[in-house]
Structure formats: structure tokens, C-alpha cells
Write a structure and sequence with these properties.
The chain has about 525 residues and is of the alpha+beta class. It has 2 domains: about 1-280, 2-methylcitrate dehydratase PrpD, CATH 1.10.4100.10; about 290-425, 60s Ribosomal Protein L30, Chain: A. The chain contains 20 helices and 9 strands. The chain has helices at about 20-30, 35-55, 60-70, 90-105, 125-135, 140-160, 170-185, 190-200, 215-235, 250-255, 295-300, 320-325, 345, 350-360, 370-375, 375-385, 390-400, 440-450, 460-470, 500-514; strands at about 1-5, 75-80, 110-115, 115-120, 265-270, 310-320, 385-390, 410-415, 420-425. Strands 7-6-8-9 form a 4-stranded mixed beta sheet.
Length: about 525
């Protein structure tokens, strides 16, 4: 890996392309190195993981809506969409949109946290959709996904967005564009333009994940993937981008990040160096924001030591700056303590999550968020006894570059009525590579089987999993099998029509009026 200093340059300085971050990213993406066996294995794991969480979300309203929008854009040869027949092909950017929402809706797939946050599995829907539409094989798909993961992880390590309230999809747009460029084996120049276009159109604020969180939390990464497909298409046609996108005096760093005097260090693979960043990432065992993963496991571990939960006076979670300020009481979001809050908001409330995990001894992707579950009087009472504080030790561990020290957990102190205390701590989730029960292929398959149960027929599950096992050897025509089909009743029903349904909706109203 080579470290690159990224800073603002005045227009008069005429920063050469070879010195720009976008060009260096494009050089990495266009460097067609072999994908290592461990990376191939992990890419397969994450394709399985994405399909698992997509299956569990198929009938949820945001996913139904996104799929309905995509269905208005059929094309040949096209790309597949989760749940639909493999013969039903849609325009790749819209397939990426629909699949991206399905993957993100439950907030239940892979994660990487460093200077910023990310769900690198969000790269898979757009890159896979383009591979299917353009007729590329398994080897090309692996090349593209390894590049997408590499660029996103490297950006997340080097550039903090959240301190400036910029949403993390600003790293996803460029990484997906780079991954698509690597898949298609495009020239460095083309990828360079596409990466900058993607950054320009996917820079949004973190209000997506603040206050009254809506379904846009699931849509935002899908939007970045869709924009990446379109950016690459435009660049292939010879269209350029705002440049230099990161370093320009009116660019991303100067006005949206730390300003004209700021410097960032972004490390990228050198020429000929394999892309291994996916191996630094980790998935979720529980359907909740990643900082809550370890604390759910800790709640499960502490529960037998407490006895009657009504005897609890207070619970204080000593944790990192990020956990305290994003999903803890340091966020100063009253919605995080509101039993009528949306699923998306409860997912970002460690106070709610810890209370339910303590009561139930675990977590469920549907039942734990049910309105009636959140409204239980005893749950609300316990929930409102929980607070978070930042502990410098946990903040330091959160930002550590040493994987043996890096931690996403905290220390919990439970004070009982009468004054006695129970305390315990956890550094990483049980499913983390350094955790008590690290996830490997059997655990990913078990997660898929569990979430697909009753939704995807067993023989269809078997077909999909068998295909993933042969990922490097898949021919172009087999790549369309990296999806799953379900019976129509599993797809849910759209509650209302939109612009893309206008003709059909208008006709229906006309008939009803007659």
C-alpha cells in the first residue's frame, strides 16, 4: 500500500491528473491483478449475505416501492432483481436500485468502520447488475467486486465524512464506479471521469440518519449505486466530470470537508498489488446498527446475572465517541427514546436495542422492532434508564489501526436499587473475525437459510448456493443465476402508485369512475 496526501489546490496550481486522488483510484481499478483465493471466498460469502437479507425484506414497503419503480424499465439483455423470475430483465441501473434497497432495508449486511463508516456490500448490486447486463463472467465479476471493496475501504480509512455531517454514500458512489470500471476493464481515463462524476452526484447530508429517520436510509446507498452506473455510462460516451473533484479549490474537501488547509492521507494498493480490503470487513449477526452488535451480545451475556430487571436503577454504557454521538444519548435525538419512533430510528438507538436485548436475551430482525414490542410499558421504563457516555479508551480503540486493538463495544455498568452494581465489557461482536464465534462460509449459509426460510423454496436456495460455490468458473450466461425467485405472494403489494405507474393508475381510476 502507498499513502497519498490529498489536499486542496488552487486552480492556478494546475494539479496534474497523475497527482489527483481520482486518477490514483482509477489506476488501482484498471490494474487487473489476480484475485486471491481468500478474497474469492469472502466475496462469495458477501453475495450470500446480501441475498439473505434481501430475502427477509422482499415484502417490506420500501423494497416493494423500489421494485415497482424498477419494473417500469425493462430492457434486453438487462439484469435480474431479487424475487423476480430470472427471465425478467430490467435496466441495470434500476436493477441495482431495487436490489440495493432490498439489501440495505434491514441494515443487516456487512460493515466497515474506520475514520468513517460504510456497508461495503452496497457495492455488489450495481457491479453485479452491470456484469449481468453486459455479459461478463465470474472472473470479471470478482475483479470488479474486489476493486469496489478496495476503494471504499481505503476511502473510509482515510477520509472522515461524518464529522462534517456528510453521509457515507459519498465514498460509495466513487467505489461502485471504480468497481464497475474494473469489471468492464475500462481505461484509466474513463474510470477517472466516472469516479469524479459519482462523487459529485452522491454527496448528501447525514440527516438521512438523524432525527426522524425514514426509509431513505435504505434508499440512499441504492441511489449511490444507481448514480455510479449512470456515471460510468456517461464517461464511456466521452463525457467528463468536475475536476479535480476532491482537491479543487471549490471542490469536495475545500467546502464540504475540513477546508482549504486540510490534508488527508489515503493509502491505496500499488501497481501489481492484490486488492485485499474485503478481508478487513465484517458482517452482522443481528439486524441493527453495527455499534450495537457487540452490545447485544453483551446484554445476552449479562442477563442471567441480573435477575428481576425491575430492580435496575440505571444502566450506563461507556463507549466510543461514535457510538455515544450517533446511536447513544450524545446524539441528543429525543426520537431515540420514543416508543412510537420508526424502525429506522429504533435501529439507531442503542438505549432501545440494549433494553430489548436484555429483556429477550437476543435480537430478531422483525419482532424486536414491532410497534407493540417497542410500546411495552416495562420496556419503555427500562429503556429510559439507559444512557451512554464517551470513554476516551473506547474511542481510542475504535480508531486504532491495529486489528487486535480495534474495538466497537464498550463497558456496561448496571446499578441496582440499593446501590450494588454489575459490570462487564466486550470489545467486538461474537461474529467478528476476532469474536467468540467468527463467521465463515457455514455461518453465512446458515444466516441465508434462516432468513430465506418460508420465503425462498428449498430447491431454489440450493441452486443459488451451488452457483456461488462455483463463482470463479461461472460463464457469462450463468451470472444471471446469482439471484433468487420466489412465489408472487412473497413479494408484497404496493400500497399506492407513482409517476412510473401513471398510465395504469389513470386508466384504473377512469374505469372506476365509469
Amino acid at each position: 500500500m502507498k499513502s497519498h496526501i490529498v489536499r486542496v489546490h488552487k486552480s492556478s496550481e494546475k494539479l496534474g491528473r497523475a497527482e489527483q486522488l481520482a486518477w490514483r483510484i482509477a489506476e488501482v481499478a484498471s490494474d487487473s491483478v489476480a484475485v486471491e483465493p481468500a478474497v474469492i471466498e469472502m466475496i462469495g460469502n458477501r453475495i450470500i449475505d446480501n441475498a439473505a437479507v434481501a430475502a427477509a425484506s422482499l415484502a417490506r414497503r420500501p423494497v416493494v416501492s423500489a421494485r415497482a419503480q424498477a419494473l417500469a424499465h425493462p430492457i434486453e439483455p438487462g439484469a435480474t432483481v431479487f424475487g423476480l423470475a430470472r427471465s425478467q430483465r430490467l435496466s441495470p441501473e434500476w436493477a441495482a436500485w431495487a436490489n440495493g434497497v432490498a439489501v440495505r432495508e434491514l441494515d443487516f449486511h456487512d460493515t466497515f468502520l474506520a475514520a468513517d463508516y460504510s456497508h461495503p456490500g452496497d457495492n455488489i448490486p450495481p457491479i453485479l447488475a452491470v456484469a449481468q447486463h453486459c455479459g461478463f463472467d465470474g472472473r470479471a465479476l470478482l475483479r470488479g467486486l474486489a476493486a469496489g471493496y478496495e476503494i471504499q475501504v481505503d476511502l473510509v480509512k482515510g477520509i472522515c465524512l461524518h464529522e462534517h455531517k456528510i453521509d457515507h454514500i459519498a465514498h460509495l458512489g466513487p467505489s461502485a464506479a471504480a468497481g464497475i470500471g474494473a469489471l468492464l476493464d475500462l481505461p484509466t481515463e474513463t474510470i477517472y471521469q466516472a469516479v469524479q462524476q459519482a462523487l459529485h452526484v452522491t454527496t448528501t447530508t447525514r440527516q438521512s440518519r438523524k432525527g426522524e429517520i425514514s426509509s431513505w436510509k435504505a434508499y440512499a446507498p441504492a441511489f449511490a449505486g444507481k448514480m455510479a452506473v449512470e456515471a460510468v455510462d456517461r464517461a464511456m460516451r466521452g463525457e467528463g466530470a468536475p475536476s479535480p473533484a476532491w482537491e479543487g479549490e471549490d471542490g469536495f474537501i475545500a467546502w464540504l470537508l475540513s477546508g482549504p488547509k486540510a490534508e488527508y492521507s489515503v493509502s491505496l494498493p500499488q501497481k501489481g498489488e492484490p486488492k485485499r480490503a474485503i478481508l478487513d470487513t465484517y458482517t452482522k449477526e443481528h439486524s441493527a446498527e453495527y455499534q450495537s452488535q457487540a452490545l447485544i451480545d453483551l446484554a445476552r451475556r449479562m442477563r442471567p446475572r441480573i435477575g428481576d430487571l425491575s430492580g435496575i436503577e440505571s444502566i450506563v454504557i461507556h463507549t466510543s465517541h461514535h457510538t455515544h454521538h450517533v446511536i447513544g444519548t450524545g446524539a441528543n435525538d429525543p426520537q431515540k427514546m420514543d416508543p412510537t419512533a420508526s424502525r429506522e430510528t429504533l435501529d439507531h438507538s442503542i438505549m432501545y436495542i440494549f433494553a430489548v436485548a436484555l429483556e429477550d436475551g437476543g435480537w430478531h430482525h422483525q419482532n424486536s422492532y414491532a410497534p407493540e414490542r417497542a410500546a411495552r410499558p416495562e420496556t419503555v421504563a427500562l429503556w429510559h434508564k439507559i444512557s451512554t457516555v464517551e470513554d476516551p479508551r473506547w474511542t481510542q480503540r475504535y480508531h486504532s489501526h491495529d486489528p487486535r486493538e480495534k474495538a466497537f463495544g464498550g463497558r456496561v455498568v448496571i446499578t441496582l436499587k440499593g446501590g450494588s452494581t454489575i459490570s462487564d465489557e466486550i470489545a467486538v461482536a461474537d461474529a467478528h473475525p476476532l469474536g467468540a464465534r467468527p463467521f465463515a462460509r457455514p455461518e453465512y449459509v446458515a444466516k441465508f437459510r434462516s432468513l430465506a426460510d418460508g420465503i425462498i423454496a428449498p430447491q431454489e436456495q440450493d441452486r443459488f448456493l451451488a452457483l456461488v460455490e462455483r463463482l470463479p468458473d461461472l460463464k457469462a450466461e450463468e451470472l444471471t443465476g446469482l439471484t433468487f425467485t420466489v412465489d408472487r405472494e412473497q413479494l408484497g403489494t404496493a400500497k399506492s402508485a407513482g409517476i412510473f405507474d401513471w398510465s395504469r393508475a389513470s386508466a384504473g381510476r377512469s374505469v372506476a369512475a365509469e
